[in-house]
Amino acid sequence: MITISKVGGIALLLAAATPALAQQGDAERGGTSAVVCVACHQADGMGMNIPGGESWPRLAGMNADYLAKQLHDFKSGDRENMTMMPFANMLSDQQIADVAAYYAEMASWPELPTAYHAADPNKEGEWLAERGDWEDSTFIPACNQCHGPNGQGVGTTFPPLAGQHAGYIKNQLNAWREGTRHNDPNELMVGIAKRLSDEQVELIAEYYAELPESLAAADAQEQQEDAK
Amino acid sequence: MKLRNPHLLTAAALMSALTISPALVAQDAASSDGEERDYQIQLPAPPEGEVTFQPPHERDLPDNQYGDMVRKGRDLFINTQSLRGKHVFNDQNCVNCHLDAGRLAHSAPMWAAFGVYPAYRGKNDKVNTLTDRMQGCFTYSMNGVPPEAGSEEIVALETYLHWLSTGAPINESLPGRSYPTLSEAEQEPDITRGAEVYAAQCAICHEDDGSGQQVGERWVFPPLWGDGAFNWGAGMHRVNTAANFIKANMPLGKPYSLTDQQAWDVAAFVNSHERPQDPRRRTMESLDETVDIYHNHMGFYGDEINGERLGEGDNYGENPTPSE
């Protein structure tokens, strides 16, 4: 039996790969920097859907590392957006960490059921989210395979989609398709966004925007039926 | 690592042309009681050519008892964790290695499997059934205790596979079966280079320590080594099988993005870590004997890596089967 090259620098290598964004944020200080943000993201951090216009994303309850990364990306130009860029540019690295902590702690992102349930093949949005679209070599994994059960986000890297505004989700998918957003780690999103059809972009944006409410409605109905 | 692979690859192609079972090359001995339990044998190389078969869509499933049994099988295939503690003793689901619910070509799809069983295998001079093959994935890939032939679980899974194969020819190996066979690595697969690929391309989902990620009780990214992973008897522990799978299916959403060499190296890295013991070790005298009888293929089982000998000890993960 022949053994090949023994492992040497693995621990070192892996350490080098962890992101350098670990700056400690102070939520209270972040509140001061955030006074200019409320005009769009609102005092409660819930943002606003603006049909036909540029929607303001919900920030309240998102992961702090994810938020900080986005602000750095606006500054560096990896994420090109004329509206956000000046506000990101105003912030120092410390202020970015602070304001990210502020929004992360403001509320919690809706916690949705995690248990397996079979996707309904007659609902296209649900099918794309839970099963993907692998036919004809489109090779689109289920969105939830990366964004977690019911699109509620996974860890620091994969942001939640359920409960985000439809207009914003749609704009982001289009930003990847058009090349103005090119900040996804390892280009994990861009290929998928490009392989979606226009119709799928509309469908999936609506699906995730409404998901927390439609799940709550289904739950209420079930309870009502149980009570009968 | 044993280097029989380069020969094995070409030999496998040759053998399938001669319709001799590749069981002759990939080690596949009967255990001491004569009971054949190695169903993780390497599959013959799939035929070349364009994938033309398309499984039916779930929209078209009939609303009758057959349709219901198909749905039950599909649920078990995607959410095999529902059998946790009974038939499954790690964190895996069938769909983790057979993507898109067993539908995806080059991801060992189920529609390419259904029609090729029962299959005669020279080594044990026996006809092996689809049930045997699925039980093999329970024993090794799921580090589990397989449901019995004829049990509801097996019937449901077989009905699902039967439906997926609607219109597929019987007794014919179809393009898209198994994972695509990579050509021999230019440079010998290297764990250190593999660690670099892993840190850059895989750790973001599977974590630095290979432990995967979950949300609540649901596994989003499966563990690749450690107690939650496939065990030392599983087909995926072979470096060549893992390299083939990875090239065509990983990183998720970016198939065929790694070079062949990267796929070989990262497969070596993943499979050079400790995982639940090979269940056949229970019936063997020693690790050496298990290696000699069952591990004459491309893998690190029994090798010393970083001062530890892989496969030493009796960590069977959560699998409670008492040792004999």
- Output the CATH homologous superfamily of the domain at 179-309 in chain B: Cytochrome c-like domain
Mean pLDDT of chain A: 90
Strand content of chain B: 5-15%
Cα distance spanning the termini of chain A: 69 Å
Quickly list its features.
heterodimer, A: 228 residues, mainly alpha, Cytochrome Bc1 Complex, Chain D, domain 2, 11 helices, 0% strand, globular, disordered N terminus, B: 324 residues, two-stranded antiparallel sheet, two-stranded antiparallel ribbon, 32% helix, 5% strand
Structure, explained:
The complex is a heterodimer of chains A (228) and B (324). Chain A folds into 2 domains: 82 residues, Cytochrome Bc1 Complex, Chain D, domain 2 (Orthogonal Bundle), CATH 1.10.760; 104 residues, Cytochrome c-like domain (Cytochrome Bc1 Complex, Chain D, domain 2, Orthogonal Bundle), CATH 1.10.760. Chain A has 228 residues and is mostly helical. Chain A is 49% helix and 0% strand. Chain A contains 11 helices and no strands. The N and C termini of chain A lie far apart (69 Å). Chain B has a domain of 131 residues: Cytochrome c-like domain (Cytochrome Bc1 Complex, Chain D, domain 2, Orthogonal Bundle). In chain B, the strands form 3 sheets. A two-stranded antiparallel ribbon of chain B has the order 1-2. Chain B has a two-stranded antiparallel sheet with strand order 3-4. Helices cover 32% and strands 5% of the residues of chain B. With 324 residues, chain B is mainly alpha-helical. Chain B contains 11 helices and 6 strands. The N terminus of chain B is likely disordered. At the A-B interface, helix 1 of A face helix 2, helix 3, helix 7, helix 8 and strand 4 of B.
